[in-house]
Structure formats: C-alpha cells, structure tokens
Amino acid sequence: MSISPRLDSAFTQAPVLPLYSHSRYVLFSDCHRGTGTSGDNFLKNQHLYFAALQYYLKNGFTYLELGDGDELWENRSLAQIKDIHNDAFWLLSEFYRRNRLYMLYGNHDMVKKYPRFTCRHCTSYPCSTCGEEELFPGITFHAGIILKNDMDGPDLYLTHGHQTDFLNSVLWRLSRFLVRYIWKPVENIGFLDPTSAAKNNTKKKKLEQAAADWAKERDVILITGHTHRPMVGTPDSPYFNTGSCVHPRCITCIEITGCCLTLVKWTISTRSDRSLYVVREELAEPVGLRKQK
C-alpha cells in the first residue's frame, strides 16, 4: 500500500468536529510520557506540560492529542507511566470529564487502537491523594480527526503522521521489537536509531514532503506530529506539524482560536531577580483559516 491510501484510510471513519470562529482547540503530539527513568524523554519537560495544560483547561480549549502520547515501544507498562505522571493524567482526565478531550494513536502507542487494551488500561489512574480515579472510561482512540471548517476555508485533517512511514505503520510490530530490544540499549551508549523519523533528517524531509503533497492534492490542511519538527504550512504546502513535548528546552503545540492557527512554544524564562517562570511564545505569525476574498 502506498502513502496516499494509508493516509486516506486514517480518515475513513474519523470523527468530525466543528470548526467555528469561536472554537478553541489545542493540538499536542509526541509527548512520549515514560516511566521516569533516564530514557523518559518527557520527564525534563513535565512541568512545562503541566503549566500549559492548566492554561488551556482554564481558558476553555479542547485538547487534541495526535498520537505517541505514551511511550509504549520502549516500555511495556502503561500502569507505570500513569503512576509516574499522575499529575498530567489528572489534568487530562479533567479535560475528558468536561467533554473537551480527543485522542489519536500513533506508532509508539498503536496498541491504543484496540478496545480491549483501552478498556483494561485507560479507565483509571493512580491518584496520589485518593487512590484510583477515573481517567478515560469509554474512550476511543482514533486514527484521525477532521475539523470541519465553517468559515469558508479548507477543512483540517489531523492524524499522527506515521502513515507516511512504511516501517512505522505497516511494519510497526517489527519496529517496536527493534526499538525495545536493539535500539534502546544501543542508544544508551550514544548511537542514534537511524529508522526514527525524529532523529534522521533525510527521512524527516521525505515524510514531510509526502504529507504536504497529499494535503495539496486534496485541498485540505493536514496537521501531524511524528517527525517532532514544528512546522507552519503555506498555500503551496498546506502541511503543519505540532512538534513535540520532548525538545531539549521546550514543548510545542498548535492553537486554533479566532479563525487562526498558531504555532506555540512553552519554555522557561528568567526574571530580573533570577526567578524562573513558564512563558508562552508564538513561533510564527498566526495563519488565517478563512478563504481570502
């Protein structure tokens, strides 16, 4: 199967959400929440993520996670991930309780597409003060989501993006085996996984170009994660990327507010008295979602 049919299939039965001028969505991808060990790339940014989610919860955003939320290739146990990062799961459960949370699966958490897995592992999380609390009872993890544009502009198609990558989509079980038992221990001594789209720039550019071509052919805006490289599209290349939550000193996401799409970075800054605080920065000019007249 070529790239186009794989991307097409992600949206065959995708839920359709409305996109109005007053809509408020925030798109995260590639959190790769881990088990708190040295291999947990999310650990260094957990406080940035928590601060960002508090902001988006308070300001009425709907949270959309575009896959690879949890690192389930390197780690076997989602229970351990929930235990280590229970503060993040508490906030995510608040979004879900208010009907403001939608989740996609990526290649690193592909098992979430199976209802048996989600029923067993995604209904509760260990609360540090009150035992077990409800997490996402009854949730379905989707391959894609469509934001139907009600502003006479292109629709937004959201998916993880691994569909552009044969090894990480069709052969994902083989890739998981290689990561879990070969590349994970090899990376611990300083070598990078050459099959990873996030660590191989040549592969990254190839996948991004394939995604951009798909979006242009269908006259839609395509938003993914997977490559970890935040990106703002153009009329000639309507492909956007949220980036990730495992950058060295920041996390990135995409906000959709007021008929605009904005690429945002959350990072630590320093005041004149040398105290630290979390700051939200816009990485590029907002992109309008209405058709130009």
Describe what you observe in this structure.
The chain is built from eight helices and 14 strands. It has a single domain (3-288), classed as Metallo-dependent phosphatases (Purple Acid Phosphatase, chain A, domain 2, 4-Layer Sandwich), CATH 3.60.21. The strands form three sheets. Strands 2, 3, 4, 11, 12, 13 and 14 form a seven-stranded mixed beta sheet that branches. Strands 1-7-8-9-10 form a five-stranded mixed beta sheet. The chain has 293 residues and is an alpha/beta fold. It is 29% helix and 24% strand. The mean pLDDT is 92. Helix 2 runs parallel beside helix 4 (86-97).
What's the gist of this structure?
The chain is of the alpha/beta class and 293 residues long. Helices cover 29% and strands 24% of the residues. It has 8 helices and 14 strands.
